[in-house]
Amino acid sequence: MQLKSLCSLLVVAILAGPFSLAAAKTQEGAQDALLSRVKALTSPEFAGRGSGTVEGEAAADMLAEWFESAGLIPGFGESYFQEFSLHGQGWTGDDLEGKTSRNVAAILPGSGPLASQYVVVGAHHDHLGRLDASLTGEGPAAPLSYYAGANDNASGLTVLFELVDHLKADTNGSRRSVLFACFGGEEVGLQGSGYMVSHMPVELDVVDAMINFDTVGQMTDNRLYVSGVGTAVAFPDMVQKANTQGLTLSLAQGGWSGSDHMSFNTKEIPVLFIFGGPYEQYNTVDDVWPTLNPEGMNEIANYSANLITNIRHYPEALPWIMIAEKLRVVDDGTQNKDTWFGSLPDFTEDVVGYKLAGVFDGSPAAKGGLKKGDVLVKLAGREVVDLPSFTGALRANAPGDLVEVTVLRDGNRLNFTVVLGDRKSRK
Question: Is residue 46 assigned to a domain?
Answer without folding.
Answer: yes
